Amino acid sequence: MNYKFDDSKVFFTSDTHFYHGNIIRFCNRPFEDVEMMNETIISNWNNTVGLDDTVFHLGDFCLGGSSEWTKILDRLNGKIYLILGNHDLKNLRQGYVDRFEHVAMQMHI
After folding, report:
1. What's the predicted TM-score (pTM) here?
2. How far from 74 is each of 7, 77, 83, 107, CA to CA, in Å?
3. Does residue 98 surpass a pLDDT of 90?
4. Residue 57: strand, helix, or coil
5. DSSP element (H, E) containing 5
6. What is the pLDDT of residues 68-79, one digit of tens each?
7. Domains of the chain, start order
8. Alpha-carbon dihedral sign for residues 90, 94, 97, 99
9. Keyword annotations for this protein (predicted)?
10. Cβ-Cβ contacts under 8 Å for 80 (sequence gap 6 or more)
């Protein structure tokens, strides 16, 4: 796959773990609950990433089903490429692949 970035910015991120309540405790994230964590990450993301920017998400994007994934993806700026993490694999069966620019186990950039 060839990537063309034009004048857009390119970002790399990983392990957002949207809707993963236990990650707050496991990783000592400074949030009271999942809603606060999700809203903070979305706000920080959109304050940094423009609509035409490119984001490579390096795995563990979100837990949950179609409702949760859709709620998050509908609110995030940028063209998102997902490199799958262990928490993302089961969600492939639920049809989220078309919500990303590209989804793969690995990418050569």
Report:
1. 0.90
2. 23, 8, 19, 24
3. no
4. strand
5. none
6. 888 899 999 999
7. 10-105 (3.60.21.10)
8. negative
9. Hydrolase
10. 55, 57, 73, 100, 101
